[in-house]
Design goal:
This protein is of the alpha/beta class. It has two domains: 7-115, Cobalt-precorrin-4 Transmethylase, domain 1; 118-236, Tetrapyrrole methylase, C-terminal domain (Methyltransferase, Cobalt-precorrin-4 Transmethylase, Domain 2, 2-Layer Sandwich). 24% of the residues lie in helices and 18% in strands. It contains eight helices and ten strands. It has a five-stranded parallel sheet with strand order 3-2-4-1-5, sandwiched between helices. A five-stranded mixed sheet has the order 6-7-10-8-9, sandwiched between helices. Strand 8 and strand 9 form a beta hairpin. Helix 2 crosses helix 3 (96-104). The protein starts with 6 loop residues before the first strand and ends with a helix. The structure holds S-adenosyl-L-homocysteine.
Amino acid sequence: MSDGSMKVWFIGAGPGDPELITVKGKNLIEQADAILFTGSLVSETVMLWSKEGCEIADSKGMNLEEINNWLIERAKKKQKVIRLQTGDPGLYGVLVEIIQALDKEGIESAIVPGVSSALAAAAAAQETLTLPEVTQTVILTRVEGRTPMPDGESLEELASHHATLCLFLSITLLHKIEQNLLNAGWSEDAPVVVVHKASWPGEQRIIRGTISTIRQQCKEAGITSQSMIIISPTLGARGFDEIKKSRLYAADFNHKFRIKNKVPRALKKTNSEKHNSDNT
Ligand code: SAH
């Protein structure tokens, strides 16, 4: 089915569980004429939702030019074309590089966000990434491997904030991670959680350890790919003796739907509330 325009949809497939794609993403897949997906982590079950006759290809083994040409060729035929990416398309995928090629051809693009593996890993481990008065910041990053890190973004520098760190593409670099965190002042027994294939039905594995033990644990478990590493002062918060209650739920805190110590009034927004609704 074509909507008459030349367009490519970039859709976040989510972290692996086919049910973690958005409703919008699923609806678009059902209508698509052609889908190019990234092989390694996008569960093939997502393809179950494509219609009969939909052309499906794996971009594993294609270089950027081949990916671009595949999408451009089909978009020019006014087919409904989808580029399906793992997690969210805006994190560690080839997105802008493809959009630039589409721009040159006058082909429109649109992006449907997806559940990133960082969030799926936290959910799998039943951990919160932020906690009042512990950390209010999450850093999504990776360790320098073949891709160089820009100035100011070495793990050691980022870790010095002692905020939550979610590390992509870094499971083979645990030795570096350990050293960088210790250099940044984290203690050896600070907790770390590694989630392998977060949300993948039957394949997810969760390894809990500390900065000094996690490398050996992952080695023993044979975990060498497709893993999210979370290091955070919030880990294990479920077992903390005392948790500061979030200001959002404190009895003396005004919230748009709740006036302190009063029964909630109708959920009708005034203009000033509309403008202030993000200030929680
Ligand atoms: N766009 C993706 C990231 C792609 S980069 C996202 O938003 O999640 C690939 C890296 O993402 C992997 O090396 C791994 O660190 C992480 N990753 C992707 N899917 C994962 C999953 N199901 N479980 C754990 N980590 C995953």
